[in-house]
Amino acid sequence: MALPRGRTCTWxxxxxxxxxxxxxxxxxxxxSVGEITVTLVCFxxxxxxMVTIPGVIEVxxxxxxxxxxxxxxxxxxxxxxxxxxxxKMVIFERVSDKQFHQCTNFQAPEMLESKVHNLIxxxxxxxxxxxxxxxxxxxxxxxKSFVQTDKPIYLPGQTVHFRVVTLDxxxxxxxxLYDVIELLDPQxxxxxxxxxxTSNGAILQLxxxxxxxxxxxxxxxxxxxxxxxxxxxxxVEKYVLPKFKVSLxxxxxxxxxxxxxxxxxxxxxxxxxxxxxMVNIEICRRPRSYLTDQIPGLCFKEAKQVL
Length: 307
Description:
Helices cover 0% and strands 59% of the residues. It has strands at 10-16, 19-23, 26-31, 37-44, 47-54, 56-58, 62-70, 76-84, 87-96, 100-107, 115-124, 129-139, 144-149, 153-154, 159-167, 177-184, 190-198, 204-209, 217-225, 228-236, 244-249, 264-269, 277-285, 298-306. A hairpin with a 2-residue loop joins strand 2 (19-23) and strand 3 (26-31).
């Protein structure tokens, strides 16, 4: 580009990476910004200015642009515009005849795919005008949604309580709009539906009351968010909770020369009280032989009263 008074302007594209340089036992960090940064530097006569912005920006998140102007000899207007999908976003705009260094935060636009877009920087004055464009990647990371029920098995007529949470790339609850949430029976018939439910950055909690004559089998909770789908299954069946539970604690290995074997047998009701009764214990030592059908095992049987 030809400039007034025969001046030329040189633009330099710098890629700033995490880099550690070691020499003679010294450790010098040349640049540590955590991500690739696109830096636009212009030296034109006595005018010097620089614009820096991350080379990869995540969709919908807040990013940062910094601009510097040194030794201006006239009033200059600096603008930085991000163009994407036939749209324009003015990120930075300032007019000054003095040097400055200023940073501004901006929110990356929403989109459903990763794509390279343009950052257009313009510096304009009475005797100077320059426009330059650089490539910026706007990266789309799909959000992760999870569905959890309060229990895995339900009786007909009970209420199914479930919650939906969506996490961003930093594992934080994200504000999400769930297009469709469906409850499907074992024949994939829709028996419940929620449309355009929003979590407002927290956990979305919903419930559904099953009919007492509902069909037994596996049911599915299907959640649609944009183009992503996540499913959660649970069972509906008539079952009877066990009245008590029996636990056995025994050593994993016992020496053949040991005369006594210690083990604990415990029976408790579901509310925690012990169960009195008789316990029949059978301990067998199976022979290690290819002819196991012809050699009987050594077994010990005993019955004891449980207090």
